[in-house]
Amino acid sequence: xxxxxxxxxxxxGASTVYLEAAKKLGKELxxxxxxxxxxxxxxxxxxxxxxxxxxxxxKVIGVMPSFLEKxxxxxxxLTELIVVDSMHERKAKMxxxxxxxxxxxxxxxxxxxxxxxxxxxxxxxxxxxxGLLNINHYYDPLVALFNHMSDEQFLHEKYRSMALVDVxxxxxxxxxxxxxxxxxxxFITEKQT
Length: 193
Fold this sequence. Notes:
With about 190 residues, the protein is of the alpha/beta class. About 45% of the residues lie in helices and about 15% in strands.
């Protein structure tokens, strides 16, 4: 694994635990020589994870739509900043560059990014690991929802297990290293019962 995309909030969160965990992930990425791909901002936990990678001597690629870059929230010290035209292009570029995807705590935008890439995995459009860094039990309600979806047969168990979860960066990255994607069902060729 050479490059990981991290989806996360442009806010700091209600507790310093979020910033500290983002910094811890950044240090671990740099230690493992994994390039960070992220949204390109200098604010919130987005900025914290990028700064941490850079301070530890790692590489960071930011991908930012031009309308946000014009608002001067782009990080000015990245290894590379790729400016794209839209949010859709941002996600596509991050998906293209990354060998895996981690969601740190964030708001609706973070969830939307994670759900799209997770859905792409379910559909077999990529075979890369997708994980939730469950800082301060932030994603416990989402994990419970995945379990509920599975119990109610709206999410096959093998697909639910595609969402890797850990409370520590080391544990999540170790899961990424051993990840084996499940066989993906084709909705076009298989009979529906």
